[in-house]
Amino acid sequence: MRQMARRGFVAGAAGMVAGMTASVAGAAEALAVPREAPVPSGAGASPGPGVNLPRVARREMRGMWVATVANIDWPSAPGLTAAAQQAELIAYLDEAVDRRLNAVVLQVRPTADALWPSSYEPWAQYLTGVQGKNPGWDPLGTAVREAHRRGLELHAWFNPYRVANHTDPSRLVPTHPARLHPDWVLPYGGKLYYNPGLPEVRRFVQDAMLDAVRRYDIDAVHWDDYFYPYPVAGQVFADDATYAKYGAGFPDKAAWRRDNTDKLVREMSAGIKKIKKHVQFGISPFGVWRNAGTDPLGSDTRAGVQTYDDLHADTRGWVKKGWIDYICPQIYWNIGFAAADYAKLVPWWDAVVRGTGVNLFVGEALYKGGDPAQPAAWQDPAELSRHIDLAAGYDQVRGHVYFSGKDVVTDRAGMMARVVADHYRSRVRPPR
């Protein structure tokens, strides 16, 4: 689950725009290397000192998430001028190039709204501070164009069902679909959600997301870990009436809910490929599908949340059925963490994707680095570099994505700098 605490964005974002031309030129020069040849199974770490092998470097994902919900990463605050917003966005793209990353996963539909001029949903309030207010520019269009100029992929990150981080529909703009169709919405855990059990909801949210696929040259549609909401003690997601209407033939409500999520994933996958076959579909779930104590097919973990049971998301099944192009589990724990050990989850996911043709990327908790509330491992600047070393021993792991953008920039514990120095000595292309 994403940590919602935010820290300030580095000063000088606007100044980085002045260096945009030089950065783009540098990115173009870096991309002049020939396409990489495959390397042996288990490879992936950087070559030893004095060895430069750019022609045999394996393609790998090196990405970072840039979150817009609650202004976690970008924009640093609502209500900035269009120029300031653009400057901050470009600063993130330039940072990705400087860190030798090759993909930015930008959140463009944080709360049933849009960071592009959508005909389905209002402008996101995180831009101007007012939902539905035109910010005076096209953030998604600009992000795609400027990312590609720098040799970066742009993965458009959507949240399917979250409507608001509050439960008051009257705070939504009057034309919001959730106000026009109040029967679509359920309050839960202090938030508003679209009801995943309604066929009309599933159709609408897909149409809203596919609008961006049609209109922009995005490289991927990306979803994170939110499907049915995370459980909240003492609260009930009130979909009994929907289950009574549509749940015939299922053994229980949990099975029906999983089928609803399956339908969303399967239909979205088909919709993307129908519009643009080359656009990838990737999902970044919570790192534990099921514990082995619950299911012998599960991982050797004792996690308090299991996506199959608690979020009604059969993440393992989506891989096995080939509905997605990549999976990026959020393995947000250190090596040796008792309840969910990074060193146990990586081989489990490696085995899950083997033979499926689905790429495996690992979501990394850079935000934990240097956080005094975290275990001792997260105070060691080498922790994430050890993650990369460990994952390099599993040939199905095709890269890593770091949460989140502001932590790539500020790098409180020096973990990102260590990863770059140890593993990202030259730029490479993402897998395809």
Automatic annotation (TrEMBL):
<protein>
    <submittedName>
        <fullName>Glycoside hydrolase family 10 protein</fullName>
    </submittedName>
</protein>
<dbReference type="Pfam" id="PF02638">
    <property type="entry name" value="GHL10"/>
</dbReference>
<dbReference type="InterPro" id="IPR006311">
    <property type="entry name" value="TAT_signal"/>
</dbReference>
<dbReference type="GO" id="GO:0016787">
    <property type="term" value="F:hydrolase activity"/>
</dbReference>
<keyword id="KW-0378">Hydrolase</keyword>
<feature type="domain" description="Glycosyl hydrolase-like 10">
    <location>
        <begin position="60"/>
        <end position="373"/>
    </location>
</feature>
<dbReference type="InterPro" id="IPR003790">
    <property type="entry name" value="GHL10"/>
</dbReference>
<feature type="signal peptide">
    <location>
        <begin position="1"/>
        <end position="27"/>
    </location>
</feature>
<dbReference type="InterPro" id="IPR017853">
    <property type="entry name" value="GH"/>
</dbReference>
<keyword id="KW-0732">Signal</keyword>
<dbReference type="InterPro" id="IPR052177">
    <property type="entry name" value="Divisome_Glycosyl_Hydrolase"/>
</dbReference>
